[in-house]
From TrEMBL:
Residues 12-323 form the Enoyl reductase (ER) domain. Pfam families: ADH_N, ADH_zinc_N. Keywords: NADP. Signal peptide: none annotated. This is NADPH:quinone reductase. PANTHER family: QUINONE OXIDOREDUCTASE.
């Protein structure tokens, strides 16, 4: 099969190799997916650089956690009726060496989630990491029906999913964006209110919408927002942090403690199994219903994976970055 891999950490154009490898076979409890589209995230580039965690834990790594395609083989113990099923997959390269930047990927059967007819592969292929994080950020402290939920950076990949999950959960959603031109896009994504934080006074404008404070914050810029968050969060509220612009920001303990604010720091790989199951079910339903939609910012063939990683590292608020392994099957919207 065609695949991309690296055998040492480093810059994409120096370490990523595109070539051929044997086609894998699923072990008991696993499925093999013929990949149509592989999602590319900044997290994939961070792992390739070896900047976080233990570095290279396998001698060869096929990158990318997320993807979508069709099950073409099943391991022992997996229902054979899953053969031919359209699926999206998540955490393919979490604690495993081989991800979705290949024509075939093998994952535990539970991590291959049935994809409803009518949902294009490119919509589901990059949803796993940001979508599951968003779901956890919104619901870790329980239902949000009737609550006020603030989503910062609402047009990033995590933010879009968080807006959708919170709205579908019955929350009143306030979104923040950078720049007045993005306000309408945030409202179109499902937010009830949108606030431009590129000019001063954002905390006061949020306060005018939520005079008693917001109940939950889905926070993607922890360091930058630390000064304002204690001001806009309600007594007993929560802040779920999925990203920070600073590695070691100074936490205003007293201001947070005086309002009994809980701060959750969310990783990417180790949420409880039940949380992942609920997240994948809710995200799939949102895709099916058309409530969650991602613009595709850039498409690359496998041979240009280094360019795709560079695009992910530079950040793409415009939407997904994807590799098309099967261009003929990647874009159509099957009935």
């Amino acid at each position: 099969m065609r695949a991309a891999w690296y055998e040492r950490p480093g810059p994409a154009h120096q370490v990523l190799i595109v070539g051929t490898m044997p086609v894998p076979w699923p072990a008991p409890g696993e499925v093999r997916v013929k990949i149509a589209v592989s999602g590319v995230h900044r997290r994939d580039a961070v792992k390739r650089h070896g900047r976080r965690g233990p570095g290279m834990t396998f001698p060869r790594v096929i990158p990318h956690d997320d993807g979508a395609g069709v099950i073409d083989a099943v391991g022992r113990g997996v229902d054979a009726r899953r053969l031919g099923q359209r699926v999206w997959i998540y955490l393919a390269q979490s604690y495993r060496p081989f991800g979705t930047a290949a024509e075939y990927a093998v994952v535990p059967a539970v991590q291959a989630v049935p994809l409803p007819a009518g949902v294009p592969f490119d919509q589901a292929a990059g949803m796993g990491v940001p979508g599951i994080i968003a779901h956890r950020a919104v619901f870790e402290d329980g239902p949000v029906d009737g609550r006020l939920v603030l989503v910062t950076g609402a047009l990033c990949t995590v933010g879009r999913a968080a807006v959708t999950m919170a709205r579908r959960g019955g929350a009143v959603v306030i979104a923040t964006v950078h720049g007045p031109s993005r306000l309408e896009a945030a409202l179109a994504a499902g937010a009830h209110y949108a606030v431009d934080v590129s000019r001063g006074g954002a905390a006061a404008r949020i306060g005018a919408i939520a005079p008693y404070g917001v109940d939950r914050v889905v926070e993607g810029a922890f360091g930058a927002d630390l000064a304002a968050d204690p001001e806009i969060v309600a007594h007993g509220g929560t802040i779920a942090v999925h990203s920070s612009d600073r590695a070691d920001p100074a936490v205003p303990y007293r201001r947070l403690a005086d309002k009994n604010i809980t701060v959750h720091f969310l990783g990417h790989d180790d949420f409880p199994d039940e949380a992942n199951r609920q997240a994948t079910a809710d995200l799939t339903a949102a895709l099916r219903d058309g409530d969650l939609w991602y613009p595709v910012a850039a498409r690359f063939p496998l041979e240009r994976i280094a360019e795709a990683h560079a695009a992910a590292e530079n950040g793409s608020p415009a939407g997904h970055i994807v590799l098309e392994l099967d261009p003929a099957g990647a874009r159509p919207d099957p009935a």
